[in-house]
Each structure stands twice: as structure tokens, then as C-alpha cells.
Amino acid sequence: MVPSEIRALFAMVARPEVVSLAGGAPYVSALPLDAVGTMIGELVAGKGAEVLQYGSAQGDETLRELICEVMALEGVQGSADDVVVTVGAQQALDLITKIFVDPGDVVLAEAPSYVGALGTFAAYQADVVHVPLDEGGLIPSALRETLDRLRREGRRVKFLYTVPTFQNPAGVTLTTARRAQILEICAEHDVLIVEDNPYGLLGFEGEPMRALRADDPDRVIYLGSFSKTIASGLRVGWVLAPHAVRAKLVLAAESAILCPSNFSQLAVREYLLTQPWREQIKAFREMYRERRDAMLDALDQLMPDGCTWTRPAGGFFVWVTLPEGLDAKAMAPRAIADRVAYVPGTGFYADGGGRRNMRLSYCFPEPHRIREGVRRLAAVVEKEIRLRDTFGGVEHDGPGGVHTPGPGIV
Amino acid sequence: MVPSEIRALFAMVARPEVVSLAGGAPYVSALPLDAVGTMIGELVAGKGAEVLQYGSAQGDETLRELICEVMALEGVQGSADDVVVTVGAQQALDLITKIFVDPGDVVLAEAPSYVGALGTFAAYQADVVHVPLDEGGLIPSALRETLDRLRREGRRVKFLYTVPTFQNPAGVTLTTARRAQILEICAEHDVLIVEDNPYGLLGFEGEPMRALRADDPDRVIYLGSFSKTIASGLRVGWVLAPHAVRAKLVLAAESAILCPSNFSQLAVREYLLTQPWREQIKAFREMYRERRDAMLDALDQLMPDGCTWTRPAGGFFVWVTLPEGLDAKAMAPRAIADRVAYVPGTGFYADGGGRRNMRLSYCFPEPHRIREGVRRLAAVVEKEIRLRDTFGGVEHDGPGGVHTPGPGIV
């Protein structure tokens, strides 16, 4: 673990005049706060002896049953007995890595991949091997080649970590056809899959995608979270695991935190039982779609030639690739000086990749701020291009390094 | 990690006809639940955008300042910048062990010691070496002998783990004179101290004891918790650490859970800012003192000759030693059949000790239930003594083994 440069950056980003396209915080103010407050107040007053007391290490049973109903929306048929409630999906990642990974073991991850997962893998000294993705998500042929190569090299692959739907940071989604292929390739190589799915219900078109877990219950460990569909401050996530893994997870969770908070868990339970949560998710989706549109429109209109970006169909993020010779990490302080922030791509690679990339998030700022942010960013990029044309470009040969996530860039 | 026998036992203990003297759950129903509910409801309605959002990995700054005020009651002068908020003190224990302990390293712990700590030490493959205690707490001469021996053996001692005040499970408190000696011995041997102090404010007589941390800020890592002074279901604890350790703790916490729950943290912050928390702790103390008295009176009146027990001046627990030839672990199922439960002593030893011991807790049952529980327990012990006299006693040579804690036996 090393002190993160991103941390220092984020102190500056907190200034109100800066438009932050960096953070991954959901827009929780869109919740009906009065109704939620009343609900929670009555819950504590009426059931305080349970709400304020220790619970079981596995998590509240009724909540685990409700979680199964939520997962059913993406085709997952799981038993409440195989669900473990965790302190956000981050804790699930930590426990899974603790259980499976010995130092030097290989973990496969998309290139780019979620920074918080990379931080956890690094903490357990996993050797992260990236597999490229494109607009259709993880590329099956690349996965197969990587697994073949690692097998020839005699390396131990512990699992494939993937965010198949509305990926963080790339904003892309694994196609239906590829889902079947990924499952098949992992079955052939007998590799576990850790499917991290915090954004699956936040799609802007059509029905939710079918989760990988829906079609291979024995191979897939599924991570879910209420951070984006209800509220991140509750820190309630979960893992659905094959039965033998679940038992190990409960013991590891017990050792790590004794038990998750009943206060948070029963607030979620009550919310799911008494509030119109499906309608609220629909409202979130519509709000985020409007913000996604604002960002893509602004990028289309304002970004200089040579920049490309993904077009997310859900979730929080757009992944931008800068023209050759530009360095998004070196540019970040200059962007902040010009009052716009993003996350440099290097944080999402364990191998030094991502120097030409930026993650832009549209989840938190309102649409007019998103447009203003992109306007400022486009001007910064234009200046960088002029500098490159005058003084020559940057060579991308240095290591990028893994940063610990920082709650600001979830 | 092995499946815990205690877990199976606890399923039976949940039956209402059983008097449980096993659990370590605080009596949270003594809180003014209506007032707390109203406070939390208004907090969510009024500050939902903060309460329901991600926070920093280190924890809320105002809460950390308030934690310093709480610690000052036991003589601790700490800076909010050196406090890390954790998911109960259990997470602090986990993070400290993760940072300091490599497999095979020695951790010193009282004999007996807190089961949840032993579970965590086992998870990181620490070699726990016990140091005996008596009614005055950890015995300084025994600590010195143990450290001298380990030094001769060339063993690496990573830290001394101790619950100096109202110890779990023994109910004893380290005397003031011994506190100075323990600090001196650890300084001589350059050994860190992890001081776990969840019960310090729950003393039944006089002023709070002065924490070890108060007299050696550089050597002592201090763990605190609101589980017993406010409510266990919030899962808010903390660690106050020397500055260099604090930085490592924040990174480890970030990797493990991203950040602690703002929902829980700001509920505690609001409670400390707006509710009469000192008066509430006083009310808790008086309630627990009445229960302690009920237990000690009943033990004095009812327990057969040959049994001995500690006389706690605060906290939740009495530690009973059975006559020679009896086995508290073997007796536990028979006690449950006779509708009384306790925790067998073996759970509190990493080395097979504690076969003649039971932990009795008086924190949760009301006084008349405590008396009834002790009455049943005394009858069970009498039967065991008769069996021993008829068939001979048990030889205590088998290993006791470490159990993971189970939230029921905090």
C-alpha cells in the first residue's frame, strides 16, 4: 500500500468552483428524504431493541430474502442461505480475495478495471493480468489467449474479476453473445468468475441484462450493492456465493467485523418492504440518463478531433481516450487549475496502462454543470494538443501504479 | 478457520425458556428509543445528502473530535487526526493484525482473552502466547518472564493484546500500580500494546480508570467502541494509533470497506451532540451494577463448594472456575438441557486452557432471570460433582481450540 497521489488531487477537487467529473458518488439527494427519515425514525422507535443490537455475521435473514428478489430482476435464482451481507460490495471483494488469493496468484481483470478492486488485489499481493475490452465488453478471444498463455506458463489463475454491465470505469456492457462465450471459456479453463454488478439496474434502455450468475451458479460469485440503487452511505452490499464458499465468507466476515450493522441492514429491509423502491430506481435511471445525454452531447460538440469515448447505456461513467502524445495523468493538475476534474486512467490499470485515458462521471453534477465541465475540459485538451504540436508528445513508458480507491472515485 | 461448535450451541440457546448467561449483548432497550428515533429521523430528513452518502475512509472528522472528548474521560489526550473510525472495534483488531502480523509471529494475550480477538489472531496465523492474570489483571512478573523466554527463543513478539479494564471474559481490572509496570516492561522489551477498552466507562464505583494509552502514546494502540455505551447495532468503533500506524490503518480500511457508514457515524455524532449521553451511560452503569449484584448474590448463595469466581467492578462478565475434575465444555449441553446457558472457558484460550471455566454474563437478562439462571446452573454443577464423585473426573489434556466469536458471545 502506498499513499495515493489521487488523494492529494481530491482535496483540491472539493473546491466549489471546480466541476468534478471525477467522483462516483450517486445523487442521493434524489431520494424522498422526508419519507425515508420518517420511515427510519419510526423503525428505531418501534424496533430499537433489534435495530440497535448485534446481528448475525451472515446478515439479517429477511433482508437476504429481499436481496434474492432484487437479484431475480437480472435472472439470478439464488437462495437467501447463500447470501452474505457485507459492508458494501467492497468488503465482499476483500473477503473473497482474502479467501482465494495467495501472494503471486493471478487475478484476471478487464483493462481498465475498477480501482477499488485493483487496490484490494494489490493488498493481497495478487498479480493482476489485464484482458482488453471494447465497446462490447471483455473480449472473449483475448480472454482465451490470456488463459492459454498463463496455462503454458504454469501460472495459477484464481479468478476472473469482471464488471460486465455498465462497467466502471469504461461504461461498456458485455453483450449477450459474449456472456455465453465468457462462461464457456471459464468453464473450459475451470476458472471462477467474480461478477461485480453495482449498476445493473441502472440501464437507460429496455430490460436489465441477464447476470452471468444466472447461467452458471457454481462458477460465479456474484457481488451486489445498494449503494447506487438506494444509498451509498448505508454501506450495505452482498455476495451470493456457491455454498462451500459462503461458509468460508461468513467465518471471514465474522473475524473481520463480527457482524454487519443491523441499523443499516434493517433500514434497507424496511425501505424495500415499505417504500416504492422500483419506482425510485426508475427515477434514478431517468435522472442519470439525462446526465449521460448532457455529457455525450457536450463531448460530441466540444471535444477536439482525435479524442474518442465510450457511449454508456447505463451506469455512471464515460471513458475518454486522448490523442496520441497526450498524458491524462500529467494533465490532471492543469485541468483542476482550469476548474474541472476527472480521474486519470492509470488508476484503473495495474500495469501502467491508461496514460491516455480519463474517466468522466456524470452521476453527481447536474446537467448544466456537466456541460460546463466538458467545455472547460475540451479547452484544456486543446491546449495540451497545441503544446504537443509545439514541444512533442509524451512517451508512455513509465508504470502507472495501482492507487487505493479513495471513496471519492468509487 | 473451522466451523464453530459454539454456533450450534447458540441455536439452542435462542429458545425463550433458556436463561442465557452466555451472550455479551448490551441491553439497548434501556435507551430512550423514541427520542433516539426522532433524532435519527430528523437527521436523515434534514441532512440526508450527507448521511446517505459515501464518506472518507478515516471517518467523519467531527465524530473523530467527539471521540477524543470521550477518550479524555480516561485520561487519553489524542488528536482527531490519529483516530480511524472502524466497523466496531473488531475491524480495528482485524486491520491491526493484518498490518503487523505475519504467520508465526507471536501475539501475547491474557489467559483468558477475548474470543473475537483470538479468532482474528488465528485468521492471520499468529502464534498466541498467553500470559496469566489474576484478580488484579495481567500479572507483570509473568509478562516479564514470558518476554524473557521468548527473547531467548528468538521469537518475534508483535504486540501485547490486553483488555485492562473490566476484562472480557474474566471481569477483572488491571490495578493502577500494575499499569505502570506493564508499560515499563513493554518499553524495556520494545513491544507494542494493543489496548482494547470497550467497557472502560461502565465501572460501578468511582471514577473511570486511567487508560494505558494515557501514559504512553507512542507504544499503545487504543481501541474504543460505542457498542456498549450507545448501541452495538450501529457498529461504530475506533482506533487511536501513533501517526505512522494511523496512515497504514486508513489505507487498509479503504481496501477492506472503502469507508465506514456515514449513516451510522452521523447517528453517533448527532447522539453525542444532542442527547444526554453522559447521563445515559450513568443509567447503563446503574442497571448493570444491579445485575452484577444479582449475579454475585446468587452465586454466593447457591453455587456448590469448590467453585470460585471473579467479582467484577464494571463491565459485563463473571469468570467462574469449577472444581477439579469438572469440564465446563462437556457440561454446556447438559446445562442447556436444564435451561441455562453460558460460554465454556475453552473459547477464550488459544492453547487448550479453560476447561474448568465458564464465562457468565449479566448484561442482558433482568435480575430475576439472572437469579433463576444461577439457580439452574448451580443445580447442574451439583449433578456434575456427584457424577465426578461416582465415576471419576475428567482429565484436561485435550486441546481446547480457538472458536470464531459468533456475535452472540461478544
From TrEMBL, chains A, B:
Cofactor: pyridoxal 5'-phosphate
Keyword Aminoacyl-tRNA synthetase: no
UniProt keyword Transferase present: yes
SUPFAM superfamilies: PLP-dependent transferases
InterPro entries to which the protein is assigned, alphabetical: Aminotransferase_I/II_large, Class-I_PLP-dep_aminotransf, PyrdxlP-dep_Trfase, PyrdxlP-dep_Trfase_major, PyrdxlP-dep_Trfase_small
GO term, biological process aspect, one: alpha-amino acid metabolic process
Domain Aminotransferase class I/classII large: start-end pairs: 32-376
CDD domains noted in UniProt: AAT_like (cd00609)
A GO term, aspect molecular function: transaminase activity
Keywords: Aminotransferase, Pyridoxal phosphate, Transferase
Pfam families reported for this sequence: Aminotran_1_2
Record family assignment: Belongs to the class-I pyridoxal-phosphate-dependent aminotransferase family.
Binding partners and assembly: Homodimer.
Protein name: PLP-dependent aminotransferase family protein
Organism: Actinomadura montaniterrae
